[in-house]
Amino acid sequence: MGLPHERYLRPKFYVAAALTLPVLVLSMGPMFGIPLYDYLTVHQSAWMQAVLTTPVFFWSGWPFIRRWAKAIRARDPNMFLLTVTGTGAAYFFSLAVVLLWEHLPAYLFSHHGASIYFEGTAFITTVVLLGQILEQRAHQRTDAAIRALMHLAPSVAHRIEADGTERDVPLEAIVPGDILRVRPGERLPVDGTLTEGDTEIDESMLTGEPVPVPKRPGDPVSAGTLNTTGSFLFRAERVGADTLLARIVRLVEEAVESEPPIARLADKVIAWFFPAVIAIAVGSLLAWTLLGDERGWLFGLVNAVSVLIIACPCALGLATPVSLVTGIGRGAQAGVLVKNATALELLRGTDTLLIDKTGTLTEGRPRLVAVRPAGGFTEEKLLALAAAAESASEHPLARAIVHAANARRLPLDPASGFVAEPGIGVRARVGAQEVVVGRAPTDSAPDREHPHATLVRVSVDGRPAGTLALADTLKPTTAAAVRALQRLGLRIYMVTGDRTATAEALAATLGLDGFHAEVTPARKQELVRDHQQRGERVVFAGDGLNDAPALAAADVGIAMGTGTDVAMHSAGLVLVQGDLQALVRAVRLSRATMLNIKQNLFWAFFYNGLGLPLAAGAFYPLFGWLLGPMYAGVAMSLSSVTVVANALRLRRARLDE
User: Fold this and answer.
1) Beta-bridge partners for 464
2) 0.85 exceeded by the pTM?
3) Is 356 among the residues known to form the active site?
4) Is the dihedral of CA 520, 522, 528, 534 positive or negative?
5) Does residue 637 contact residue 566 with C-beta atoms inside 8 Å?
């Protein structure tokens, strides 16, 4: 029985927060000089706190009470068991004090009146509610990623009927063997084989590579990919749940479902701490009742309540959330958006980084890296003619050529008669010249300085004018970031859908620990699983839709803020500027945050461990020491102040070298 949806928890949190604030003012205001007792008696203030806290404990905290009951039935100690036991003890003891005010022994009174702890009950319930809402939102982001994937395929397909007419039909009506038409700018509805026409298809959602792939009759095509140029026909072969896109959706779903919940350090400690607290409280009650005078049972009851109050996990409940919230804020300042606090916790223990090439290590878009003019042409003339001819094209290579010409401030003559010929390139008249720009044949000799660049051949009036070399270049910060991550103890492997030769050259340039080339989206997730099965704790960093299954399967998924929405939905951390130096800062932030959490847990248990025997009256026979409920509450508050003060140090954490 998990906690309800965020929509159910959110109004409970709002009510709890609104009622807790006046409870805190009523209980702590006089300590800070607010003259409340000029207008209220101490007893009246106690009654008001009781009235305000009751709906917080019973209505806002009802989901936790249900989890408390389940934990008792299942004999499964957890945070909710300790939380509700502690807040319940504080609430019911305080309520009894308010109801029996006139009949209480002087032992329970101080100059502020009888000891009551409604503020602890209300505050802890509110804080735990906030933490659960943040956890629920992390699950909703995963659901959003899956919905975004499912919407990539169009809902309508253009089917060619037996009589040759074209008819728009819903996607559900397509069966294997149907002939479908796809026009320029449309996404493919199902998987199949091209039967008529030539085109170029943007398959970056599958491969991550930014350059569209030429397709001719007989070539396979996949659902969700984008047709960039010509109209063509293809035969449907895999439809519905059998398409590659549907399999990617299933991979993301399976990865999320199979991801084990994080075993928090606090829960591990609570497994033995809770029984110990109950044993101490019951032992104190029995010891005082059996060994004390006629008032021994009353002292025993008060001491038992003191034990439960000092064990109330205010500091324990704050130890992790307050450090995480502070760390998340520090990350935002450093360009690291933490979408899932669990990811920030887990990042500290990772030792292997699988990193996508395109858009992560590299810029993710082609750039002009070389201009090779033929006889009779200069670099400027060749580039200006090619850019003028390509100015009307939306092809990524065309945009790179035009951008390079604009960067050099070359004047571009107007082009006319623009024609895009799939698989060939573009043709246009620039001034009085006929210019054709298209990819060089695959058997062409590679560029000398850039052997893995894509070559574009330019001809003018039917004779060769030269070639342009375009490549996806490394980001300026990549090399330094890779070295810094390796110094932090991470083994780095590049994962790419690109050719083995290209991947090998890039891995050698960066000094990576290894690489995986010609990798499909499904294979990316398999690689994550393979490394995990070897006992490695894996971070996957990527930016594309094709990275979503691997991002979801990894121990920690990190997306580039410049990437696709699907990738960012699937990841636990987002590097806002798409800069790998932010990944270095994220690792350092995670380590600093987890160290801070462990320090907080130490202080939380230190105060509890020190105060429990005292609250139980163990030192009374020897030294006359006794810790009443009021002082137990002070100790509980002191541990909370220590935890918060320690967590705030994260705001000054150094994340850069």
Assistant:
1) 459
2) no
3) yes
4) negative
5) no
